[in-house]
Amino acid sequence: MSDKESAGSPPSAQEHSLLLKNGIILDYFPVAMDAEPDPRVVRGDLRIKGERVVERGEDLQPQAGEEVVDLSGVTLLPGNINAHGHLYATLAAGMPQPTAPLETFTDILTEVWWPLDRSLDNEAVYLSALAGGWDAVRCGTTMIFDHHASLAAVGGSLDRIEQGLGEIGLRGCLCYEATDRGGKGQRDMTLEENERYLMKLAEQRPGGVPRFRGLVGAHASFTLEDKTLKLLGDICSRYDTGLHIHLAEGPTDREVSRERGWKDPLERLEENGLLHPGSLFVHGVDLSPLDMQSLEDHRCWLVHCGRSNMNNGVGRAPVDRFPSRCALGTDGLDDNLWGELRATYFRGNEGGRGPLGHQGAARFWLGNYRLAREVFGEPFGSLDAGAPADFIVLDTFRKTPLAGDNWLSHLLFCFHPWDIASVYVGGKRIYTRGDAPPADAAFLQDTAARIWKMMEMRK
Ligand SMILES: [Zn+2]
Questions:
Q1: Which of 53-67, 343-357, 415-429 has the lowest mean pLDDT?
Q2: Together in a domain, 304 and 389
Q3: Which of 101, 141, 169, 230 qualifies as a FRET site for 26, CA 20 to 30 Å off?
Q4: Domain tally, the chain
C-alpha cells in the first residue's frame, strides 16, 4: 500500500479540515479491515477531514480554509485502547481501608468493591466516568471497554457513563455487570439495563464512526445462577452481541462452582450460549489448556490484567497459552495502557527470559486494536486514509530512532503520559497538555467523601 492515498469521495464543506505536517507517524495496521498487523513508521503529512484521515503522504499542500499544524520532530500514533476498565472505581483512590486483613479475593470483593458499587448514586456514576475519562485521555487512551456496577443506581447508569466519557470526547464500549448477589429484583434491573442500552444503540441511525458500542455485561460466573446465565445468553442472541465477564480471576470461580454443585465455570457459560463469538472474558488466571482451546474455538477474547492480578494476589495468568484473540485491560487501576503493557512484559520476563518476549507482548498490544475493529467495525490502529482520526501527539525529545522494527521497545521503555502534547478522537482535539480538568476538584473530593461515608454504612 502506498503512503499517499485518498479516502474516496471528499467530505462535505462543513467538516473541519486539518493538515498535520512533517510528523513521524507510527501506526500498527493497514486500513483494510481484514489486514494483518504491519507496524510502520514513516515521516510525512496527514490530512484530516471530519472524523477521518483522508490523505497521507509527503509534502501535502494546504487547501483553502484548512488549519495547518507543523509537527516537525513530533510523533503521532494511534490512541491507546483499554480492553477492560471499571470507571466506577475512579473515586476509590484513598478511601478508608478495611480494618481486618483481606485474606482472600472474596474478602476484597465483599469488603472493598461491593460496598463501593452499592454506594454510588447517579451523580457519582457520572462524575466517576468524567474524572476517569480525564485520567484516561491524559494517558493517551481514546477508547475504554468499561464494565460497570452501581447496584444502588442501576437504571440509566450506562447513559451517565456515556455522558461522562462523551464530555471528555472518548469512545466507549459499555455494559452493566449483571449479578445475582442482590437478589432477583436487582438481578432483573441489571439485565434490563444491559438490554435497554443495547436497544438504544440499535435504534440510533448509522452514520460516521460509532462513538459508543455495547456488550452484554455480567460480573462473574460465581455470582450468577444458572437461570441468569440463560437470560444473559438470550440477550446475547437477541442482539447478536458478545458477553463481557470476569472469568477465572483466581480459583474462586471454580471453587464456588464445586461448593454449589455447579459444573465448571466455562462449561456453564458454554451451556447457556455465552461462548458467543466476540465475547470478552477477563483474567483467565485459572484456566486449563483445554479451556483456552475452547475460547480459541469459539472465537472469544481473553483479556489480561496483570497489574490487577498482582494487586489482588489471585495468581499468575498463563499468558503464553492465551488464545489468539487476546488483549490488555487495566481492571479499574487506571487507564495507562503503556503501564499495563510494561507490567505484562516485565512479569513475562520475571525469573529468567520468560515465555512472552517482544513478540508475545506485541500480540497483546495489537489485540486491543483487533478487538476494537471487531466491535466497532472501523479500522482502528491505522492512520492510513479512511481510518478514524484517533491519535496521540508526543512532542518529547526523542533520544533514539523510532522505526517499524523497534516500535515495541519505544512503547515499553520510552513513551510516557507526560510526553503527550495532545490527543485527537474523530479528528477533534480533545486534550492539550495544560488543559483545565473537566470538574472542580473540591466538588469531586466532596463527592468521594460522601460515597466513602455511605460505604461505611453499607458494609
Ligand atoms: Zn474487572
A1: 343-357
A2: no
A3: 169
A4: 2
